[in-house]
Amino acid sequence: MSDSVALAIGRAKVTTDQDGIERLRAENAGLREELGKLREVMARREERTRRILQAALEGFHLVGLDGKILDCNPFFASTLGYDRSELLGMDIGQVDQRPPEELAAAIAEIRAKGAARFVARHVRKDGVPVDVEVSSHLVSLEDEQFFSSFSHPITEQLRREQALRESEQKFRAIFDETSMFISLLTPEGHLLECNRTMADFTGALPRGGEGEPIWEAPFWGDTGDAAEHVRACVQKAGAGASSSCEVELHGPGGRVATLDVKMKPILDTSGKTVLVIAEGYDVTELRRAEAERASLQERMIDAQEATIRELSTPLIPLDEGILVMPLVGRLDRVRIGQLLERLLQGVVAQRAATVILDVTGVPMVDAEIADALIRAAQAVKLLGAEVILTGVGPEVAQTMVGIGTDFREIITLSSLQSGLHHALGRSRRGGSSGSARRRDRR
Which residues form the PAC domain (predicted)? Predict the structure, then answer.
């Protein structure tokens, strides 16, 4: 190869090497530009994450495997009443109130599982405890490991939950211990739950299910009437209207209670019935007392009527063998029957020989009354006594004559006084022998 050719080849090689260097320089510049952009992106992302954590309304803190706090956001620090700088480097055990062994077990669980969610009690700088819910993760970054934890206070939440539990316990105590028979039903009438009073009396389970409707339960008896009343009540309440009925509830051992049942619908915001509350008031003793009172009242009425009958038809013994029955007011069929009954009983009981019927106080005598007086006189005569009718006024006398009343069986006198004289005179004339003859006739 000649020198000129070698020189040309050398020049070409130098040119090629120079071009390669330029290309590499251009590529390096491009890579440096891309790297700068990536660094800017990473910086923006890091800043965005930092700002998010700084502004978050949830605590964030990093804890090393040795238990030291590596970093935290302002919310975590403010929740505990510290400055961020005071917390950095502090042992987590100074913040977490759990016993050391329990805290160590929690850290071991996070390391084993990689993550855990738990409730802890942190202590503020002023010593006030703060209940928090913590979500902690084990983070591995190259040759470094630490715990990344988010937390938020739940003291108020726990207080509300405790208040809700206490309220529920109070409601449950009232629900179970009340003397009322209470059941919760679906709108279709299926038993969801009943209180202890209902369960103890009927033997039903406190919590029911979606089985048969409550009116098909065995504790309504065998007649079917109670079940129909309950079914009608449930259907009315299920339709959105309050309802009531009175039924008998049967329990084991032949126990029976009369219940005044009130059913009320519970409506949702759209007005649809979602639940029916059935409240049964035990009115067994009340109904028994009402029945006794009605029976007593009926007996009192009977006694009053008997007293009135006696007062309206008084039978007065005046002397041995003489009875007087003064009649006052209007006579009707019922009173005439009472008069005759009392008159005959008195004649027998008093062994009377003479009965004076005084009609001075009777305003009107019609054919029926006149006939009744004649029949009374005849009945008394059959018992061995005679009847004297006194006090017949002009109007009554005219009425009796007008209707053709036959008074041959009765002695009539104008006044009660004259009747008494007649009866007493007859008694004295008859003497003891007369009385003996009357007793013989009887």
Answer: 243-295
